[in-house]
UniProtKB/TrEMBL annotation:
InterPro entries: DUF5062, DUF5062_sf. It comes from Gilvimarinus algae. This is DUF5062 family protein. Pfam families: DUF5062.
């Protein structure tokens, strides 16, 4: 898995956009005390469920692979 050039910024963007998506969809209500790892996992699972991203094989699901997958998803979004 090759790290993207601006992966850190893309992960932040994915968290922001993914949180808004989950809340508008009525699937989640994130609290300020929720950890970024928990948010990422939930957003990843929601996007997989909605067939917006391809799922990773279950044995490959890790914090790092989820971050990478969400960064790729964010890089394909039109919003800044």
């Amino acid at each position: 898995m090759k790290k993207l050039e601006n992966e850190k910024e893309l992960v932040k963007k994915a968290l922001k956009v993914g949180s808004v998506y989950a809340e508008k969809r009525g699937a989640a209500q994130f609290e300020p005390t929720d950890s970024a790892a928990d948010r990422m996992l939930y957003i990843y699972r929601l996007l997989v469920h909605d067939k917006l991203i391809q799922p990773l094989p279950e044995e490959q699901v890790s914090q790092k692979s989820i971050q990478h997958k969400l960064a790729i998803w964010a890089s394909k979004l039109d919003t800044p």
